[in-house]
């Protein structure tokens, strides 16, 4: 995972990414001129975090208005984000969705924030983008970048992305240790930063400070992912437990998992969810299972209920016969599990069997659960 960093002025040009999602190519291998549609969604990510709100000095009314807008945007963003993360859509439609939603968010923010707050938010966006901020129209204009400089940046970004994909592929094949992969990525970022800064004139470097403003500590940012989609009713049968709405669970940490009772990888994850439910129920942890059928047998509510009893599941379960929840979440993998914080934001997910081939996924997810339970609601 790449984290956001900031040190102004020239080292603001460090490519930073807010999320722990699969990397999306930012430029093509041919190094054609990149556009703002190629940028990572840093504005969508940071706008929901308390540390950013504090920096902007938002009022309570502004936060309420902001979250009203963000919930509508997240309902469109998260399914596409999830599809992109799991490799179930191509980069181009996802990038278009991000660009459209970012533009919509900026329009809405102009009616919520005052001019000083909006200007500061744009500074934070530039800091978060690091080197990639030179793709923004206002930065190009502010620095008066030449076409040759822009092409040089495009070449540098294309090289970084190509090498990053190569490293990711080797990591996936276990041909590279995680620590070594991180070191190589850091070296790529450093080279990219040096290339971009080296291509700027002294005058252009001098203008960076006004474009980025005072340094912001992005390590404070906790919330980078959308609001969790609300539980859908269409085609849903509650197999056990009373119907649940996530909006009614604010103040509690929530685990939502998708499974199919005949899926062996799902079966191997079930004891972990049951253990979380048992270990943290007194700490206001809520667990919810969504059985989305894959086979004809899994469409039979009685068989789903029998399997739940056999596996010792005691938390609420719903049968998602029409895939209304499956689609609202953009989920395409059995099993998948999502951790939701006390304010309803997604904070972490895991796709597949958590302890597959020696992974310590359950341990990692449990650690995140304990962190979320300890946070103030």
Give a description of the structure.
Keywords: Signal. It comes from Crateriforma conspicua. GO terms for molecular function: antioxidant activity; oxidoreductase activity. This is Thiol-disulfide oxidoreductase ResA. It contains 13 helices and six strands. The chain is α/β, with parallel strands linked by helices and 377 residues long. It has two domains: 211 residues, no CATH class; 139 residues, Glutaredoxin, CATH 3.40.30.10. It has a six-stranded mixed β-sheet with strand order 1-4-3-2-5-6. Helix 3 packs antiparallel against helix 4 and helix 7 runs antiparallel to helix 8. The two termini are 26 Å apart.
Offer a few descriptive terms.
single chain, 377 residues, alpha/beta, Glutaredoxin, 2 domains, 6 strands, globular, signal, Thioredoxin_ResA/DsbE_sf, antioxidant activity
Explain briefly what this protein structure is.
By secondary structure, the chain is of the alpha/beta class.
- Tally of discrete structural domains: 2
Approximately how much helix is present in the residues?
40-55%
Share of residues in strands: 5-15%
Order of strands across the widest beta sheet? 1-4-3-2-5-6
Helix-strand topology string: HHHHHHHHHEEHEHEHEEH
Structural class: alpha/beta
Shape descriptor reads: globular
Low-pLDDT parts are: 1-31
The Rg value, from CA coordinates, equals 22 Å
Average pLDDT level = 90
Number of strands: 6
Sheet with most strands: 6 strands, mixed
Intertermini distance? 26 Å
Instruction: Determine the number of helices (DSSP H or I, runs of at least 4 residues).
Output: 13
């Amino acid at each position: 995972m790449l984290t956001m960093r900031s040190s102004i002025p020239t080292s603001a040009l460090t490519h930073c990414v807010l999320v722990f999602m699969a990397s999306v190519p930012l430029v093509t291998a041919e190094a054609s001129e990149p556009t703002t549609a190629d940028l990572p969604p840093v504005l969508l990510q940071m706008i929901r975090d308390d540390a950013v709100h504090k920096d902007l000095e938002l009022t309570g009314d502004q936060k309420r208005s902001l979250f009203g807008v963000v919930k509508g945007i997240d309902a469109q963003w998260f399914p596409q984000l999830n599809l992109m993360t799991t490799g179930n859509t191509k980069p181009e439609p996802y990038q278009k969705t991000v660009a459209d939603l970012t533009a919509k968010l900026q329009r809405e923010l102009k009616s919520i924030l005052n001019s000083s707050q909006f200007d500061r938010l744009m500074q934070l966006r530039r800091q978060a983008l690091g080197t990639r901020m030179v793709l923004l129209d206002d930065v190009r204009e502010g620095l008066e970048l030449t076409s040759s400089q822009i092409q040089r940046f495009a070449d540098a970004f294309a090289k970084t992305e190509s090498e990053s994909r190569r490293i990711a592929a080797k990591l996936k094949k276990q041909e590279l240790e995680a620590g070594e992969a991180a070191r190589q990525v850091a070296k790529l970022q450093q080279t990219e930063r040096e290339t971009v800064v080296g291509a700027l004139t002294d005058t252009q470097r001098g203008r960076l400070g006004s474009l980025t403003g005072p340094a912001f500590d992005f390590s404070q940012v906790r919330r980078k992912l959308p609001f969790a989609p609300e539980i859908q009713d269409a085609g849903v049968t509650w197999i056990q437990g009373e119907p649940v709405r996530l909006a009614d669970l604010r103040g509690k940490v929530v685990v939502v998992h998708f499974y199919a009772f005949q899926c062996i990888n799902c079966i191997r994850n079930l004891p972990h969810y049951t253990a979380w439910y048992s270990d943290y129920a007194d700490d206001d942890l809520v667990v919810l299972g969504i059985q989305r059928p894959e086979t004809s047998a899994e469409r039979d509510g009685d068989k789903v209920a029998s399997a739940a009893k056999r596996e010792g599941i005691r938390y609420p379960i719903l049968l998602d016969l029409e895939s209304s929840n499956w689609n609202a979440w953009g989920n395409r993998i059995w099993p998948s599990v999502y951790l939701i914080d006390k304010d309803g934001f997604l904070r972490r997910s895991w796709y597949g069997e958590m302890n597959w081939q020696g992974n310590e996924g359950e341990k990692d997810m449990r650690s995140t659960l304990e962190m979320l339970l300890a946070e103030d609601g």
